[in-house]
Amino acid sequence: MQGTVDGFSYGLVTPVVAFLMACLGGALGLRCTARAIRMSRSWRPGWLALGAATIGSGIWTMHFVAMTGFTVEGTPIHYDGLITFASLAVAVVMVGIGIFIVGYKGATGTALFTGGTVTGLGIASMHYLGMAGMSLDGNLKYDVLMVAASVVIAMAAASAALWAAGQVRGPLWSVGASVVMGLAVTGMHYTGMAALEVHVHGTAEPAAGEPAAALLGPMMVGPLAFLVLAGVVVIFDPLMVAGGPAASPAERKPGVPAHPPAHHSPARPRLRARGPVEHRSRTPQRR
């Protein structure tokens, strides 16, 4: 029989908290991305990796905060620990690929489209892999069109967020980009949940895995602590506070001098100093 699905068993508490977690991860990660764009290539990978980890942790935490309010009438819901942890790794890796593309190629054209697409697919992959980690007394069935719509929402909003982060126009742009990223993750999540149907078997067999309270609570401690540490790094970074450009040292390339010779204008010929000019009188002299 078809089970009654409730994604808001705690009212608006879980959607609001989930949205705030997505915005927090997006704000920290996109600020790190903007910081990386203004840095030299030697420091850029570290900031991009930090941005990928914070965005991945934020969207993963958002997903499972929202899932704490998800219930199905007639069956308990358990979670597989390995698949749940794998969904976090997928989110960090795929978001990292998209961020590195934009960080090195710029937030324009093909690079932005590719980076936004990969980031959006990472968000969607995390969601549906996390859903695959659920264990209950029933079968999950998805509406294909709604699933496709959720993926498109994730890709479009992720591209918009990366574009805004790449503009590097101060903290307000990053705040706006983080809100877009939060809307992307939460919009994708609840669109995907709307595509779900659960057919309950009605047997007395217990579901495998751990209950949500026993598994998700301890697992979210790590990503939450990481987000706090990343926030400390971003807050106390002087360039983040000032919002000014960083001085990128010139990169040495083979066969190219470090300091190109200055172009001098052709020297003008010097005029020789002449002595006093003798003025001859045109008046005829008398003999």
From TrEMBL:
Bias type Basic residues, positions: 261-273
InterPro entries, per the entry = MHYT_dom (IPR005330)
* 4Fe-4S is among the record's keywords: no
Pfam families from the UniProt entry = MHYT
- According to the record, the residues making up region (Disordered) are 246-287
Domain MHYT: from-to ranges = 10-199
PROSITE patterns, per database record: MHYT
Q: Which domain of life is it from?
A: Bacteria
- What keywords were assigned to this record? Membrane, Transmembrane, Transmembrane helix
Instruction: Name the residues that span the membrane.
Output: 12-34, 46-70, 82-104, 111-132, 144-165, 172-192, 212-236
> This protein is called what?
MHYT domain-containing protein
